[in-house]
Amino acid sequence: MQQAPQNSYAVQHAWLESALGQYFLTRERAMYDAVVGDIFGFNALQLGLLQMDLLKNSRIPHILHVGNREGDAYCESDYLPFAESCIDLVCLSHVLEFSSNPHQTLREVERVLVPEGYLILTGFNPMSAWGLKQVLTKDANYPWHGQFFTLSCIKDWLALLGLEFVSSSVNCYEPPINDEKWLNRLACMDTLGERWWPMLGGLYFIVARKRVVNMTLLKPNWKKNLIKSRLAVSSNPKSKPHQQKNKL
């Protein structure tokens, strides 16, 4: 993994505002929007990429957006300040690539998910033009300084934690050229890629479910505070309107 640049948070924001970043965000948002509305429960959590609301189409009543620098609560991804088995849906957007301990991050996600709860995970595909650029580039800026994991690697990690693979899809077949004019010219590659080289897109999208063998379902204690009392939770007055509305 390349060393992250100083003030990487600002660098991430700048990249997401670029032509390539907007292309990426548009396709990732559409993938989440198509799935989250069909998942039900009481509590949902978005971890990572808070620049867009991935739970906008969710019908789950209680939603938290969590990051290490912004959101409804501040925390690191490898130690989540939530009780065990209290979250019905976790959206993990490009967190593993930039986590100092990706295995522990997934263990924490498994811990907080309720039995039969869902995990939606997105990552950059190393088996693509995006992955080739990440290997060859000397640019340490976002997202190229991250560690890209293969789809098969993530599936293996999920299986070890008892998270059952449900489905996956791949997107972003255009080469990572940060030029709006060229991205428009090459827009046909998204259609061609889905048909002719479906596994070579720059972005993968995974849906998994927490399975518990021989479990006995118990009535949950909804009076129990989801967030551990000894950890501070942000009351950021500058939170986005959708974040304030959906706070627990």
What do these coordinates show?
This protein is α/β, with parallel strands linked by helices. It has one domain (8-212): Rossmann fold (3-Layer(aba) Sandwich), CATH 3.40.50.150. It contains eight helices and seven strands; from the N terminus they run H-H-E-E-E-E-H-E-H-H-E-H-H-E-H. Strands 3-2-1-4-5-7-6 form a seven-stranded mixed sheet. Helix 3 links the parallel strand 4 and strand 5 (113-124). The longest helix has 18 residues, at 19-36. It is globular. The termini are far apart. Mean pLDDT is 85; it is low at 230-235.
Break the fold down into its secondary structure elements and pairings:
Elements: H1 8-16, H2 19-36, E1 43-47, E2 62-67, E3 73-74, E4 87-93, H3 102-112, E5 113-124, H4 129-136, H5 151-160, E6 163-171, H6 180-185, H7 188-196, E7 203-210, H8 241-245
Parallel strand pairs: 1-2, 1-4, 2-3, 4-5
Antiparallel strand pairs: 5-7, 6-7
* Count of separate DSSP helical elements: 8
Strand order of the largest sheet: 3-2-1-4-5-7-6
Structural class by helix and strand composition: alpha/beta
Global shape? globular
Percent of residues in β-strands? 15-25%
The CATH homologous superfamily is named Vaccinia Virus protein VP39
Q: What is the class in the CATH system? A: Alpha Beta
Terminal residue distance: 36 Å
Number of domains: 1
**What is the CATH third-level topology name?**
Rossmann fold
Mean pLDDT reading = 85
